[in-house]
Amino acid sequence: MPAMRRLFLNGLCLLVLLVGAPAWALDPARKVDEYTIARWTMEDGLPHNLVHTIGQDAEGYVWIGTWEGAARFDGRRFTAFDAGTVEGLEIEGVRAIARDPTGGMVISLGRVGPGLLHFHQGRWQRLPGEAGTLADVSVLRFGPDGALWIGTDHSLYRMAGDGRLRDIGGTHLRLANERVLAVLPLADGQALVGNRHGLFRIRDDRASEWGRETGLPETSVLAIQPSRWGGILVGGGAGAWRLDQGRALQITGERVEAMLEDRHGSLWISTLDGLRRYAQGRYETLGERNGLMGRLAPALFEDRDGLLWVGTTNGLYRISDGPVFGLARSSGLRDIYVRAIIERPGQGVWIGHPMGVDAWQAGQARAIPLAFDGKGDPSVLSLANARDGSLWIGTYDQGVIRLPAAGEGPQARPRRIDEAGGLPSNHVRALLERSDGSLWIGSNEGVSVYRDGRILRTYTTADGLPGGNVYVLHETAQGELWIGTSNGMGMMRRDGTLRAWSPMSGFPAVAAFDFLADPDGSLWIATDRGLLHWHDGRFVQFDHRQGLPNNRLFRLLEDDNGDFWVSSNRGVFRISRAALTAVENGHLARLPVEAFTHADGLPSSQANGATSPAGWPMRDGKLWFATANGIGVIDPDDARRQRAQGITLVVESVEADGRFLPPQDRHVLPADTRRVVIRFTGLNQRAPERLRYRYRMVGFDRGWIETDNGIAHDAVYTNLPPGKLRFEVQVMNAPADWSKPENLVTRTVEFEKASPWWLRAWALALYAVLLGLVGWAVLLFALRRQRHRQRRLEALVDARTSELSDKNAQLEQAGEANARLLEQLAHQARHDPLTRLANRRAGDAFLAEALEVSRREGRPLSVALIDIDHFKAVNDRYGHAFGDDVLSQIAALAEQLAGGVEGVLISRYGGEEFLVCQQLPRSASRARLEALREGIARAGIETPDGDTLRCTVSIGVAELEAGQDLRDLLRVADERLYKAKQQGRNRLVSS
Question: pTM for the whole thing?
């Protein structure tokens, strides 16, 4: 028994070392179905899909041993080490990997070039002595004393810190020429070893069959581990056992391929049926239905972040419990195309989908029967709690179903509201029971109000409601009802009046999917054009221009910290309310948005919307969202802790002109270095896709360069300048807010690039001397040429000045003649050559301008058409020459009697007709026209035969009225001129 006590004290020492590791582990309170499983295969860079072993180095890289070599994994990218990537080494058949406590990793090689290799700071090296060529290594374990225990297919070895190798397998008949399957190093050079015959204890380099002493059956032992609950855990062909106080207690009789007890004390066992978790007397299994494919290998590893890594014949798997997980068919849902989610007090979470409604309670899903009245289970689009404990269910084609409350008794039956009862459409996407007890129903035919067993009213486009499907109904604390539709949105006030916003006409979106009201009465709106903030009578829009990854937003929820969570077709986004306020006030250019997608654990990045409610804030603080592949569950508190998780930032390599430089913090570059490549990565295996980077080369880059969250992180520089340079790279968890240094991790690499000989000090001094001499010579030569040119220039200037003076005089004379000619042509173009009055073109232009002024300023405008009475008789009796003379004299009289005033124009309109346009009051314009008519009638014109001819004129007048255009005005004047002729001529008609 003293030996047994010492053994358990040794196990306790090893346990203390394990407990000292980071405390983060898989949450034991979650069901295994709620964990997120990620998979990588050869298509992702893994050397081979058959994974033999997994480990982790001090920096946080995960190392994987496969049939075709090893790989180092930073969470996004594999760096393969195989026969084609490591010069001079045939790295294949890697069955064992161990972290060297002094730094680096030790891996085993296969039969081609067998042995053990040590990798440290980018360099590969065989272990010294016989260990460097040891064949068929299957197990590697470092002990507390730094010794390396090596299990092979033929024996067991112990390599001391000084490199000496001792064959221990030969000390016992049942260890010699036997494959070692498991090793657990203990203190004082002791170890527990498993092979096909059972469990052995090594003490003082000698072996004994310890399994028999404790009552363990003679069976293969494949896994050995100290337990946090005390004792030693042993797994193998006969199952799993706990060895405690000299007794073997069986945990399970299933064959154990690999075994691991995590930091919370849950026991994970690889079996033929999958990976089982034993905790609190029960077990759960992760298998093919969860996405864990292939036959499980002995590779089972818990990393420093508490994540579980599993190797199978089908690749590498990571099991995590981040802030996001999904519920799908494997959780019992009948349909994974989830449309509506609601929490019911004391009854769990109810989930609407195309096959009806499922209730999720105590980790189990059960179907809710909704078939009645000869109709089957409906396709569900919306859910709403009723104040009496019942549930309202909106369906695709069966209207609304009322599910009785639990307290109504087994005799209570569901009730239906459909088209037969006055509902305009059975297609119902939104439901809301308002504070007054009425049920408001949103369909593709408007919003209906149901109360006291009947439809009271339906609001449609005829009432001002936007058309299309009604997606959401929301009542604020102020009693306002907000209505979101596929074609705008509306708001109904307490008095029943309705205000609507149409797409792109006062509403900067098309569809409104959800509302979230603030206590101050402002409103947040999820739309297909981003997030809108309605306050003070205006919309503020946040979309891709402010940093949103996607503009189409569906469900909008607020967590207990006041942050917004909104679903979309590209995942669920967390947006800080403070950041929204900063962007809205102009203090911040872009929103730091944290996006959660399928890679983070959502069943699908495609969330569902246009149904209500497409998500729900649970009483435990978690947020549930409907997606196209199940339910996405997000724990905001876990997300906040994840953002604060530490990161290791590693500069993986520095390459200069294709040559890798040794790993160090300072490099001297030759002067002819043309290309420098710096590869870096951040290590956060729990959420590597959430890392954000920026870098700069101080002395070369003007500012920081932010990289995307892609797989490769390389900074490439060409033609760096000589001198001292400093490369800085920073990493932080998303969302990237670089103004918070407490969240940053920074690494720097110093460079000093030599100057080429032509840029060194002596060369620069020589350049200065030569440049001075050349400059002096050039100056002298330039002065001499300048004097010669100046003399020639002065003579040339005198001659040219004289010629230019003559030319200028000639040009001035020609210009004056041209100006006179242009003036004459302009006058001729606008005046009648016979009467010297403005011609019809000028009259029309003046009239159009006067009409525009009258309309704009309200000034009066009248148009008069004047025709000489019996003018044809004058032409017939005296000839056209005298007729032209008559026209000229009457035009002169008209200009004298009615023209010459601002706002008045008299023009010849055609033949013996004249147009008079006056921008004068009606009485004044009439008086001037009467004076013109009377003056013409009194005037005498001497005829060729010595008689005196007296002419009269008829005048038709039209004043501008509202709604008239130019054509209407002239038509009225012409009609009134015709009326003056009919009434006897020599008169003015204005009505």
Answer: 0.71
